[in-house]
């Protein structure tokens, strides 16, 4: 009978001891995060993980513990170390992905900057040879299993369509607000006075797109990684091995030191020389490092081309029917909560 009462007590003591003596116990954060991940799971399933973590950073600083085995950071130093240092921070989702994706990542070249030149050249001079090559590849029997093929399609649809579309949706709505009419007009003036220039040679267009992605990052939530088995030190705190660490664009992009008046939509900030280095290195809309978004340059090209074509001939204003444009976090990206963006397109005379 005594053992029946003793075993639960010993389990509770062991549970509390391991939680409270962990190196993570030194990290700032609510006390309950040391005991259970249930509150974080609740926030995630209710679609509030992003705002919950952001509120904890606002209360506790750049380093917080958000569950017994997970931490969040909002400093440039931590972001650089986690995503661009070359250290073996394993992607949190990697063990759950198919072997196909592991092989693909292991063979992918690190010469990603070449992607920018390729995208620009492809946009300027479409080459029919690539379509001929694709048709020949299509005629061959696929080596992909049905499940892998479906996963590939889903990955391309989610990463290549939803994110860019959602980003444009929020950005064009912001440009259509009455108090941003001067921004839209300045953008139109630059486009119309530089008809002979390519979309990547328009500085204010570039600033508008960057500011849109800063304020409305299509994937604003955490990009989780596992720490290496040997552990690591981030922002002065020792983090044991196999702990989930992450940064989220939604919080990084609101650093008031790097982005004064962070809640304000202000493309002009990207044209100022002062703080240029800090702004660009804190820009996290596409993640960073070797595992950053491989379609970054294509997405930027799509956004700039569409905005140039629209605002060269049209003025956009809010529609008569209001739409709920609050962030609504999905599995991968965020979109308007009302699932609609109501705009009117007025021909510019």
Automatic annotation (TrEMBL):
Keyword Chloroplast included in the entry's annotation: no
GO-annotated molecular function: heme binding; iron ion binding; monooxygenase activity; oxidoreductase activity, acting on paired donors, with incorporation or reduction of molecular oxygen
UniProt cross-references to PROSITE patterns, sorted A to Z: CYTOCHROME_P450 (PS00086)
Needed co-factor(s): heme
PANTHER family assigned to the protein according to its UniProt record, in alphabetical order: CYTOCHROME P450, P450, PUTATIVE (EUROFUNG)-RELATED
Record family assignment: Belongs to the cytochrome P450 family.
Name the record gives this protein: Cytochrome P450
């Amino acid at each position: 009978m005594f053992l029946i009462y003793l075993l639960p007590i010993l389990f509770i003591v062991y549970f509390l001891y391991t939680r409270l003596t962990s190196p993570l116990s030194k990290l700032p954060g609510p006390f309950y995060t040391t005991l259970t991940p249930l509150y974080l799971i609740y926030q995630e399933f209710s679609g509030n993980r992003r705002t919950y973590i952001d509120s904890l950073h606002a209360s506790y600083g750049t380093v917080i513990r958000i569950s017994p085995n997970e931490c969040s950071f909002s400093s440039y130093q931590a972001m650089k170390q986690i995503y661009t240092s070359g250290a073996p921070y394993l992607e949190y989702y990697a063990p759950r992905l198919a072997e196909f994706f592991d092989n693909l990542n292991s063979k992918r070249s690190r010469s990603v900057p070449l992607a920018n030149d390729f995208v620009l050249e492809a946009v300027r001079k479409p080459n029919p040879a690539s379509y001929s090559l694709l048709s020949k590849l299509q005629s061959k029997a696929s080596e992909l299993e049905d499940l892998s093929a479906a996963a590939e399609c889903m990955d391309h649809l989610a990463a290549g369509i939803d994110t860019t579309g959602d980003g444009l949706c929020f950005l064009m709505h912001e440009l259509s607000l009455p108090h941003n009419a001067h921004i839209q007009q300045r953008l139109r003036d630059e486009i119309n006075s530089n008809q002979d220039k390519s979309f990547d040679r328009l500085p204010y267009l570039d600033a508008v797109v960057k500011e849109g992605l800063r304020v409305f990052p299509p994937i604003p939530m955490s990009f989780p990684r596992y720490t290496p088995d040997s552990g690591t030190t981030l922002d002065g705190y020792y983090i044991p091995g196999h702990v989930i660490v992450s940064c989220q664009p939604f919080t990084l992009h609101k650093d008031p030191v790097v982005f004064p008046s962070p809640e304000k939509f202000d493309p002009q900030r990207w044209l100022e020389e002062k703080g240029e280095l800090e702004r660009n290195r804190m820009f996290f809309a596409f993640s960073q490092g070797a595992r950053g978004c491989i379609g970054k340059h294509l997405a930027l090209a799509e956004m700039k081309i569409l905005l140039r074509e629209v605002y060269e001939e049209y003025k956009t204003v809010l529609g008569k029917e209001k739409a709920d444009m609050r962030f609504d976090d999905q599995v991968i990206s965020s979109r308007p909560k009302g699932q609609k963006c109501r705009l009117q397109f007025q021909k510019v005379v």
